[in-house]
């Protein structure tokens, strides 16, 4: 069993480490969602994390320095669990690029559960690998005192994160955006419909899940145009280092590259800063201007579908 756990852990971390290399920028961006890093510090941290996963994975597969790397992996996984738990209970829709180009994206609560499974496996490998060594014998004496409490806590915390956090920590706080200002800045329309507004910062699309959410909703709107019970507006944040003409060309090229059929308007009235928008935000209004729903990117498939179903007849 210990050998099996060692090989599983080694294989997972080797594969996930290698799979992050082609999407290095996206992985680095996902780190900033949990830890306030930037510049060289962010680049070095992301590179070190990838290198460590690859080296640790190889070491476990080859059974070289197994106890050391199992201990280091345990510490790393514990830090992930803490950071993800904080994101969960702050209601942040964090989607990790942990599996790189493999494309497996899990919501925060499921990521935490996976991490607990990996943590228990790493601790078992740490305690029971090479049982004839002096360190191994000493650790095995305390195995039941370590593994059973860890397993119990893992089950308890996993059960907690699968529940609705608001049942324990209160309702989700309002997003600090002046939604009425946004509504009254929209151009007048003749049809008496609700209004779906995308306030989009193209820079947020360095986050793969943000891009996926936006493209998927745009595709849904286009495919079900006859069933959309809302006037749709897509307003993009002005890019400071581009002239208006340059940004128009940039957006035109972006739409072509992603085969995105809907028009994107540039924020000519500085709505982003005036309304206090810090991240790409989606808002759904009634025809009279009452806010029905609001969410920031990234959302993930479940939340994305909830909003889509609100404006489809």
**Apparent shape:** elongated
Order of helices and strands: HHHHHHHHHEHEHEHEEH
Gyration radius over CA: 23 Å
Q: Main beta sheet, described?
A: 5 strands, mixed
Class from helix and strand fractions: alpha/beta
Overview of the structural elements:
With 313 residues, this protein is an alpha/beta fold. It has 2 domains: 168 residues, no CATH class; 133 residues, Glutaredoxin (3-Layer(aba) Sandwich), CATH 3.40.30. The chain is 58% helix and 9% strand. The protein has 13 helices and 5 strands. Strands 3-2-1-4-5 form a 5-stranded mixed beta sheet, sandwiched between helices. Helix 2 crosses helix 3. The chain is elongated.
Quick description:
With 313 residues, the chain is an alpha/beta fold.
List keywords for this structure.
Glutaredoxin, 2 domains
Question: How would you summarize the topology of this molecule?
Answer:
Elements: H1 2-20, H2 24-32, H3 39-62, H4 66-89, H5 108-128, H6 134-141, H7 143-162, H8 166-169, H9 179-185, E1 194-200, H10 208-223, E2 230-236, H11 244-257, E3 265-266, H12 271-275, E4 281-285, E5 291-296, H13 301-311
Parallel strand pairs: 1-2, 2-3
Antiparallel strand pairs: 1-4, 4-5
């Amino acid at each position: 069993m210990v050998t099996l756990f060692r090989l599983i852990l080694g294989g997972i971390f080797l594969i996930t480490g290698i799979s992050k290399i082609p999407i290095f920028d996206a992985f680095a961006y996902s780190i900033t969602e949990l830890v306030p890093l930037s510049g060289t510090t962010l680049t070095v941290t992301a590179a070190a994390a990838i290198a460590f996963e690859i080296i640790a994975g190889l070491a476990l597969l080859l059974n070289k320095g197994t106890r050391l790397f199992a201990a280091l992996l345990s510490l790393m996984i514990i830090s992930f669990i803490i950071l993800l738990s904080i994101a969960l209970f702050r209601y942040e829709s964090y989607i990790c690029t942990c599996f790189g180009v493999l494309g497996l994206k899990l919501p925060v609560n499921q990521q935490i559960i996976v991490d607990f499974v990996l943590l228990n496996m790493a601790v078992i490998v740490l305690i029971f690998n090479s049982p004839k060594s002096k360190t191994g014998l000493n650790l095995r004496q305390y195995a039941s005192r370590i593994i059973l409490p860890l397993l119990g806590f893992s089950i308890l915390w996993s059960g907690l994160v699968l529940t609705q956090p608001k049942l324990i920590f209160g309702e989700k706080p309002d997003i600090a955006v002046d939604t009425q200002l946004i509504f009254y800045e929209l151009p007048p329309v003749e049809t008496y419909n609700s209004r779906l507004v995308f306030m989009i910062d193209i820079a947020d699309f360095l986050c793969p899940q943000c891009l996926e959410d936006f493209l998927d909703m745009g595709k849904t709107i286009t495919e079900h145009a006859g069933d959309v019970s809302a006037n749709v507006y897509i307003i993009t944040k002005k890019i400071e280092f581009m002239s208006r003409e340059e940004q128009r060309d940039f957006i035109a090229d972006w739409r072509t590259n992603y085969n995105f059929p809907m028009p994107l308007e540039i924020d000519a009235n500085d709505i982003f800063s005036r309304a206090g928008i810090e991240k790409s935000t989606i808002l759904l209004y009634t025809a009279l201007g009452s806010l029905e729903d609001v969410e920031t990117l990234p959302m993930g498939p479940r939340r994305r579908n909830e909003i889509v179903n609100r404006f489809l007849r």
